């Protein structure tokens, strides 16, 4: 059971998400409709995980994301799952940058994912457990951009699969389960991937960030 | 547009008469011009006398009745008399002037009759038109009458020999007391008459020229009125563009708050139903799963639509991030190098973004390019964006409304779009927009 603070301005979705989490066995300690409410609720309840919409009042821009980033600056171990109507890699990098070892989990998901109840619940648990979750759509867009000239073409199909799941934030254990291989072989694949892409091997959030940065064509 | 030129400049309406007058006398006198000028003077004199009558009646009645209040109304009518007179004159002058004189009056957008009247009376053009009407009624009608009398008298002198021959010798007297003995003796009078006709033709010509020139001075739009017009047009165009932009944002907001939320809620409910059913009814669960997938496709389409209207990432993160995002979605290799020190004004960002989007779409669809390079920087106060592809070139920006529409939007921001696309490539689309408000 997780204690959740929920921030979503659309009443319909707020109620729906609360119901969803309730049925998943979690407790929504407070549901709020804007960024300031979110900050106060977190101070009041010290939840296990925060789930917030990107776009919220008063400006209906990225107030939710900003509030989440400010919360993270104050409570580094607070797990935050950000839901967005759009995938933009800019949001994902903004959210992930500045993370360090010992930080709480981070997630960035398209809002539609809540319809896939089992996967959404899994994502909530993973974020609460300190892992990173990146929406598969972000990874898909990033991978689709890669062309023949990029080092990515040197990866084997299996390594590509592993890279995709790494970018989505799965740890080696989860990747092994998803691909039904041993964890040792995942470790071997990831070592090859880092070597071929010339990325420093790291773990956790930093690994996701490094992979995403590489896919975005930036220096990690 | 003739309105941009000053009076008397090359191509002004008085040029034709002046050129005719500058010809050799024989070429002027034996052309159609004397007839045109006389006709112009005759019509002008008659009209001018009519205006004189109207002015006299209106002013005197107005002065007399002003004690009753009705007179004030008549005086207002007098002030407005120049308006119809000027309208008639603009048409009448076409007889001798090849270039039409434009109406300087700026029509108010709406308002009651009272507003329109007040607007009319505050326009300087109205008072210049009244001045012209007075000039026409007094000076031009008088001078025209003089020239026409000269013409008639000269014509009579010319026809003296015929008269003498037709009536009887010794029956016609031009100078009192001296009867003309024979048609031959009347020939000197004919010569004097012919000289009079020639003089009248020249007088009519010069008078016509003066009248066209004065009409051009008084009845055409002044330079400041023209430029005020341009300023107003530019402002209204910018207002339209702003309204258009606001409307796009509103549509995006409405879609986000309405249809998108409903669809997300729908997938959520369907997801819950699927979850609750579990393995109990596999067929029902499969149907719900299908429904959920359909709702997701609808959401995907809606997202693409919204991105085309006004992308959220542009609002939140600015031009560089939004262009990087669209580059990621382009199925070609796109290098983005946009280096901007700060966020740009909203309209600049939006227009620049859609120009890049259009250029990318064109490169993908038509050019056969493999690589695209986008560079952007701030050159003092101007955003300079260049999109270059290595395709086959030969793109014609005048075909298709995409880029030309964007060129129009850029023009509103005083920016410009240049497309260089030689056959064989490369195609280079360059956007320059000033960023000062």
Automatic annotation (TrEMBL), chain A:
Keywords: DNA-binding, Phosphoprotein, Transcription, Transcription regulation. SUPFAM superfamilies: CheY-like. Residues 3-126 form the Response regulatory domain. GO terms for molecular function: DNA binding. It comes from the Bacteria. It comes from Streptomyces triticagri. The keyword DNA-binding applies. GO terms for biological process: phosphorelay signal transduction system; regulation of DNA-templated transcription. Pfam families: GerE, Response_reg. Residues 148-217 form the HTH luxR-type domain. The modification 4-aspartylphosphate is found at residue 53. This is DNA-binding response regulator. The lineage of its organism: Bacteria, Bacillati, Actinomycetota, Actinomycetes, Kitasatosporales. The keyword Transcription regulation applies.
Automatic annotation (TrEMBL), chain B:
Keywords: ATP-binding, Kinase, Membrane, Nucleotide-binding, Phosphoprotein, Transferase, Transmembrane, Transmembrane helix, Two-component regulatory system. Its EC number is 2.7.13.3. The chain crosses the membrane at residues 28-55, 61-88, 133-166, 186-209. It comes from Streptomyces triticagri. The keyword Nucleotide-binding applies. Residues 247-314 form the Signal transduction histidine kinase subgroup 3 dimerisation and phosphoacceptor domain. Residues 40-219 form the Putative sensor domain. InterPro entries: HATPase_C_sf, HATPase_dom, Put_sensor_dom, Sensor_HK_TwoCompSys, Sig_transdc_His_kin_sub3_dim/P. Pfam families: HATPase_c (PF02518), HisKA_3 (PF07730), Sensor (PF13796). This is histidine kinase. GO terms for molecular function: ATP binding; phosphorelay sensor kinase activity; protein dimerization activity. Residues 353-435 form the Histidine kinase/HSP90-like ATPase domain. It catalyses: ATP + protein L-histidine = ADP + protein N-phospho-L-histidine. One of its GO terms (cellular component) is membrane.
